[in-house]
Amino acid sequence: MTAEEILHAHAALLEGHFRLSSGQHSSRYLQCAVALQHPQAAAALGQALVNGLSAHLSEAPQVVVSPALGGLIIGHEVGRALGIRACFTERVDGQMAMRRGFHLEPGERAVMVEDVITTGLSSRETLAVIRAMGATPVATACVANRSGKDSLDGLPLVSLVQPEFPMWSPEECPLCAAGGAAIRPGSRPAG
Ligand code: ZN
């Protein structure tokens, strides 16, 4: 199965009429965690990312670093497929940091792995942590790339799907105009 088929098969990529947390309406919704809760699906997506990364890496990476929480499972699976360790950054008082005894070696080649990249804020903060620890980010990867770019912070950005999400205000939503009711993603359609 392709990555898109895996996401569809586990209902992580939904088509319908959704009210997003921003208040906007959309005809599509992505929740990677719904697919990543299945270890076989997570492993397949991790392997697919490693396949995509191989074209961008002249030397084998030595560590995967992911921002918590979204990047944890997919980062772990990329680490498994590469045969290297996978650690993570997390927010401490709003600041991205590396805790829990994780350590990066000076010059260590790191791949930053995230589940979904939209603005890339958490990803760039994680790259900053990697650099601050003296390690060297060599590439970035994510399951779903909504940034519209194929690079991040000057590094290659490998992704499996690049979903388009039409979004409208409720007043301008054509699905509302057609008489439909938007649902909160994760809730069951009424009736
Ligand atoms: Zn609507």
State the strand order across the main sheet: 5-4-3-6-7-9-8
Bound molecules: zinc ion
N-to-C order of helices and strands: HEEHHEHEEEHEEEEH
Q: Into which percent range does the helicity of residues fall?
A: 25-40%
Structural class: alpha/beta
Distance between the termini: 32 Å
Number of helices: 6
Strand % is 25-35%
Judging from the principal axes of the Cα atoms, what is the shape?
A: globular
Radius of gyration over all CA atoms, rounded: 18 Å
Task: Describe the protein's topology.
Layout: H1 3-9, E1 13-19, E2 25-30, H2 32-36, H3 39-54, E3 63-67, H4 72-82, E4 85-92, E5 95-97, E6 109-117, H5 121-132, E7 136-145, E8 151-152, E9 155-161, E10 167-168, H6 174-177
Parallel strand pairs: 3-4, 3-6, 6-7, 7-9
Antiparallel strand pairs: 1-2, 2-10, 4-5, 8-9
Helix pairs in contact: 3-4
The chain binds zinc ion.
Kindly describe this structure.
With 191 residues, the chain is an alpha/beta fold. 29% of the residues lie in helices and 31% in strands. It is built from six helices and ten strands. A seven-stranded mixed beta sheet has the order 5-4-3-6-7-9-8. It is globular, with a radius of gyration of 18 Å.
Keywords:
binds zinc ion; 3-stranded antiparallel beta sheet; single chain; 6 helices; 191 residues; 29% helix; alpha/beta; 7-stranded mixed beta sheet
Briefly summarize what is shown.
The protein is an alpha/beta fold and 191 residues long. It contains six helices and ten strands, in the order αββααβαβββαββββα. The protein has helices at 3-9, 32-36, 39-54, 72-82, 121-132, 174-177, and strands at 13-19, 25-30, 63-67, 85-92, 95-97, 109-117, 136-145, 151-152, 155-161, 167-168.
